[in-house]
Write a structure and sequence with these properties.
Layout lengths: L2 E6 L1 E2 L7 H18 L4 E5 L20 H11 L1 H10 L5 H28 L2 E4 L2 E5 L2 E9 L5 E6 L5 H6 L19 E3 L8 H9 L4 E3 L9 H8 L3 H7 L4 E4 L3 E4 L2 E3 L4 E4 L4 E4 L7 E5 L4
Parallel strand pairs: 1-3, 2-11, 3-4, 8-9, 9-10
Antiparallel strand pairs: 1-15, 4-6, 5-6, 6-7, 10-13, 11-12, 13-14
Helix pairs in contact: 1-4, 3-4
Length: 291
């Protein structure tokens, strides 16, 4: 028996001050999810789960915001960041920081979720992170098989205004593809991408049977966001007749960003198969049998 689990992860600064804490938290969540679905299937983390690895070593307090974090990073690494800005033709401190930190962020992200996959015995869709990829800072998501091998990398095509402000660049629709698993092809549409037919139809044409939307909403309170959220994974799952629509969401507060959302799994008719009870608490929603 195999299932699908979607993790509603609660962002906390303490999980990102070092790679050990991040590893321990992601493994704990992954093993809990694996147990719920019988040790076999697909486990999905929310968008941005790897982004805050940029904080490693800063010793920030839970109450500190993004401006304080940037100030510490810039002051400690000013010459290096100026050089990166000049050599990468950017005037954004955030972009230069992400370029500089890309290798350690990606190394930790890949190593941790590779281990989660091996220990859980499941396919892992590892939410997403921001790193320099193919020459630009992108929002990217890795998928791992139960042996810990990378079987797919998806890049976000439709970038939000806050992501543009940070210096992220959109990918091309031609690079969107579905990934093979033992439980059918999965189509990963990183958050905002799942609201767009060009991305979702490309996944469907590539054979995707399960639509996965890793999300992290820090722009709207859930009371406002829920009025439009149905247009994403919920609507597209019904429209394109995917077997399942899986939407894990990040919650909690970190660096002054308040994340809110309700994680859910639906079927092709839009019926909720499982759904988180609260928009602010950590949770795992799941189905224990993939038909």
């Amino acid at each position: 028996m195999a299932g699908i689990a979607a993790i509603q992860y609660k962002f906390e600064t303490s999980d990102y001050i070092n790679s050990h804490n991040f590893r321990e938290k992601m493994i704990k969540l992954g093993l809990t999810a694996s147990k719920l679905i019988g040790g076999e299937g697909i486990i999905v983390y929310p968008e941005n789960v790897g982004v805050f690895l940029v904080l490693e070593g800063l010793n920030l307090k839970e109450s500190e915001d993004i401006s304080k974090a940037l100030e510490k990073l810039v002051i400690r690494n000013f010459p290096k960041l100026i050089y990166i800005m000049l050599t990468n033709s950017t005037s954004k401190w955030t972009e230069s920081i992400l370029i500089w930190r890309s290798k350690p962020i990606l190394d930790t992200y890949v190593q941790v979720f590779e281990e989660v996959a091996k220990k859980s015995g499941c396919y892992i869709v590892a939410g997403s992170t921001f790193v320099k990829y193919e020459g630009k800072v992108r929002n990217i998501s890795y998928t791992f098989d139960p042996e810990g091998r990378i079987i797919g990398v998806q890049q976000k095509v439709h970038i939000t205004p806050p992501e543009y402000e940070l210096g992220l660049k959109p990918s091309e629709i031609e690079k969107i593809r579905a990934f093979d698993t033992d439980f059918g092809k999965i189509g990963v549409a990183i958050c905002y991408d799942s609201f767009f037919d060009d991305v979702v139809s490309k996944l469907k044409k590539d054979g995707a049977e399960i639509l996965i939307q890793p999300s992290a909403n820090a722009e709207l309170t859930w009371d406002k966001a829920k009025e439009i959220w149905w247009k994403g994974c919920y609507n597209m799952t019904k429209k394109y007749r995917f077997k399942y629509g899986v939407n894990p969401m990040g919650v909690g507060k970190i660096l002054g960003f308040q994340f809110e959302g309700i994680t859910s799994i639906i079927d092709s008719e839009g019926k909720y198969l499982d759904r988180a009870e609260h928009h602010f608490q950590e949770d795992i929603v799941f189905i224990d049998k993939i038909r």
